[in-house]
Write a structure and sequence with these properties.
The protein is mainly alpha-helical and about 140 residues long. The chain contains four helices and four strands. It has one domain. The longest helix is centred in the middle third of the chain and has 44 residues. It is elongated. The N and C termini lie far apart (about 75 Å).
């Protein structure tokens, strides 16, 4: 089993990658710790944690595990915040789409001087091309 083939995927949380890496490592018990540490570091996506580990001199898998634990919380918090921001963006886009659909239906909400919203329909054209006021409800 080649530990260098166990790579962190695009968008994969650090915690998920490390769990996969540890599972892969258990299937390769004869791999020296130095090689396993190097594989874990080189298989990370480029980012702050990979840069941090590149500067560290880790002597054991135990030390590597502790570094992962420290960074996993911040990585999880980052992914949670990112998901919340994406959800908010989707909600804004949905609202904008609904507003656009209303204006395409021929009804345009307009605000009166009193601050109340009212719908104004587009004037109807007859066959002669003349505008007529909207039909009364």
């Amino acid at each position: 089993m080649d530990l260098f083939q166990c790579r962190q995927s695009q968008g994969e949380a650090l915690r998920d990658y490390f769990q996969r890496f540890v599972q892969t490592k258990t299937r390769a018990p004869g791999v020296p710790e130095e090689v396993a540490i190097e594989a874990a570091i080189k298989s990370l996506r480029i980012g702050p944690f990979a840069a941090h580990l590149a500067r560290e001199e880790l002597a054991s898998m135990h030390e590597l595990y502790h570094e992962f634990v420290k960074y996993c919380k911040s990585d999880s918090d980052f992914h949670k915040t990112l998901e919340e921001q994406n959800s908010q963006k989707r909600q804004v886009n949905d609202r904008n789409s609904q507003k656009n659909n209303l204006s395409q239906d021929g009804c345009h909400p307009q605000q009166e001087a009193s601050g109340q919203m009212m719908n104004i329909e587009q004037p109807r054209n007859d066959k002669s091309g003349q505008n007529h006021p909207p039909a009364e409800p």
